[in-house]
Design goal:
With 230 residues, the chain is an alpha/beta fold. The chain has a single domain, classed as P-loop containing nucleotide triphosphate hydrolases (Rossmann fold). A hairpin with a 2-residue loop joins strand 6 and strand 7. It binds 2'-deoxycytidine-5'-monophosphate (DC). The site of 2'-deoxycytidine-5'-monophosphate has 14 residues, from helix 2, helix 4 and helix 8.
């Protein structure tokens, strides 16, 4: 008997979590939620309000102003996935910039931010039938998720993928800058006090350093099938 499940995908930055999550959601007709986009949107908000830059962070000001952060996802049929809106404005492009990537881990350390975002993520998954990717989905957001995946790949492979993505969209970036950012984010995300990036005991680890997209998708799909038909 087919049932709707929750699929939690966690792992290091640029391990292709969102690519696989989008593919799965499409195939299963599930909702896809990119929680990194939510942390990125709060970061953009903090930058716009001058609460944070590369040498300064007024955490209190951000916390006091969190009630004016309204996040929503709107499905873009042409792209086939939902785009991130911050206070009614599409911020999909801005939140992927290196400037946001450099500050997002600092914002993600703030417990008040996490509390707000986790509550809305749990609400989105109330009816199951959801694929959610992030850092704490299998450990904090949905510890009861039926399927938990933990994605890894070498830092070099990940930086190369990210570098190509940013070049393709016309950003002027250096490979070393990206590699440093990927490693630095992993370090901060894994060592923070609140909800650090760790593999849940019952998560299945997938190292895709040398795995093609199709091979990875087929492997994960068979894990999903097993869970759905259990
Ligand atoms: O998945 P991403 O690279 O777009 O995520 C950006 C940052 O947001 C990441 O470096 C850590 C933070 N994040 C988090 O702390 N918890 C999540 N569930 C998702 C992202």
């Amino acid at each position: 008997m087919n049932k709707k499940i929750i699929i939690a995908i966690d792992g290091f930055s640029s391990t292709g979590k969102s690519t696989i999550a989008k593919q799965l959601a499409k195939k299963l007709n599930y909702i896809y939620v990119d929680t990194g986009a939510m942390y990125r949107a709060v970061t953009l908000f903090a930058m716009q309000k001058n609460y944070i830059n590369h040498q300064f962070f007024n955490k209190e000001a951000l916390i006091n102003d969190l009630s004016s952060v309204e996040l929503s996802f709107k499905f873009n049929a042409e792209l086939g996935f939902a785009e991130m809106y911050l206070n009614g404005i599409n911020v999909e492009k801005e939140i992927r910039s290196l400037a946001v990537s450099k500050l997002v881990s600092k914002i993600a350390e703030v417990s008040e931010v996490r509390k707000k975002l986790v509550a809305s993520q749990q609400e989105m998954g109330r009816d199951k039938g959801i694929v959610m990717d992030g850092r704490d989905i299998g450990t904090v957001v949905f510890p009861e998720a039926e399927l938990k995946l933990f994605m890894t790949a070498s830092a070099d492979k990940r930086a190369t993928r990210r570098y190509k993505e940013l070049l393709d969209r016309g950003d002027d970036v250096s490979f070393n800058d990206i590699l440093f950012n990927v490693q630095e984010r992993d370090r901060i995300d894994s060592t923070r006090k609140d909800s650090p990036l760790i593999k849940a005991d019952d998560a299945i680890e997938i190292d895709n350093s040398d795995m093609g997209l199709n091979e990875q998708f087929e492997r994960i799909l068979s894990l999903v099938d097993k869970k759905i038909n259990e």
